[in-house]
Amino acid sequence: MWRRFRSASPVHWHEVTGRAVPGFWVLSRYRDVMEVYRDNKRFTSEYGNVLATLLEGGDSAAGKMLAVTDGRRHRELRNVMLKAFAPRVLQPVIAKVRERTDELVRAAVEAGDCDFARDVAEHIPMATVADLLGVPAGDREELLVLTKEALSTEDEGSCAQEAVVARNELLFYFAQLAAERRKDPRDDVLSILTTSTINGEPLTEQEIIFNCYSIIIGGDETSRLSMISGVRALMEHPEQWRRLRCGEVTVEGAVEEVLRWASPAMHFGRRVREDVEIGGQLLRADDVVTLWNSSANYDEDLLAEPASFDLGRKPGKHVAFGYGPHFCPGAYLGRAEIAAMLCALRTHVANAVPNGPARPIHSNFLHGYSSLPLSLSPAR
Ligand code: HEM
């Protein structure tokens, strides 16, 4: 489908029927997607950065949460957030990721059969985000339940109202924890957010809690879905699994190919600020424009044979983490999580075969599986 869009209608106007929402532009070529990502002056995220919010006309965290803020405040908040992703903060978090992933994969191999999504992948990114934010051990179970309710995209019939309540509970939780950290700062991201100042002024309470929320949204599902899609791709391509196991390809290169292949965040979007031409089409001020990573990462102009999963590719320039001013600040951590998973598989697993149907999630934003039953045989 995307190949057809890229060649026949690369900058495509999609009319929405049956709902009182505007139509939107669909960009499928790598070069057009990059052009919009790199320009946060003519294309803003302040009215939302995914279809769900863009079509509703806005995002309640606009101007406060990094992903939906632009201009000077975005640069200022991003500088604070980048402190939170500095190697000093990430090092102990990544050490725990490796340890945790290794233990989970080893346990799954010992059991023989597992649901890789539920038994392994589900336990890594949320725990990592909780480590990063400094969430106390006793609160983690509750946090997991709330994030699942707030963000879960996997059930077609999930209740929108319950999700809103859970989202508010999460914000309330972080407001309380932020108040504690302000009095008694530690070496975690929440303490960095509560004690940092911009031009001598502390961040507002809303900025602190929305950005904690942003780390949860950004850090959980995308990493989890990448791991699950990565394992699935390796199972479906035994030759690539062999190359990884015998060291013919590097883990770093394999991580990039997994990210390109999985493209867990299928799209992001922007609102056009002023009339602008892209790929020969006139996009008008206030139009909604969507950037399809899941197409751009398979663009024939970007790489040869995009439809083949090849761990030995020269690390490409995929847009799985976006590009430009909003480029994912969690990219280093996301890559470390996928690398830890590939290393653990290579160490403990000889072979993995499907043991039931994979269950795809239901979303126009994220792509991947919520269930991946496998039988694993141990490496000697
Ligand atoms: C932004 C993807 C992991 C936090 C983004 C964007 C993409 C992305 C495509 C750009 C959004 C835009 O342009 O509107 C991914 C993928 C990940 C991942 C594929 C894992 C494989 C993480 C992690 C964290 C994180 C682990 C935090 C712990 C964020 C934040 C932003 C962001 C806060 C907003 C940045 C800004 O607007 O300046 N991510 N992400 N992400 N991501 Fe990630």
From TrEMBL:
A Pfam family this chain is assigned to: p450
Gene3D superfamilies cross-referenced by the UniProt entry: Cytochrome P450
Database matches in InterPro entries: Cyt_P450 (IPR001128), Cyt_P450_B (IPR002397), Cyt_P450_CS (IPR017972), Cyt_P450_sf (IPR036396)
Keyword flag Oxidoreductase: yes
Keyword flag Metal-binding: yes
One Gene Ontology biological process: cholesterol catabolic process
Superkingdom, taxonomy of origin: Bacteria
Keywords: Heme, Iron, Metal-binding, Monooxygenase, Oxidoreductase
GO molecular function, a single term: steroid hydroxylase activity
Homology family: Belongs to the cytochrome P450 family.
Protein name in the entry: Cytochrome P450
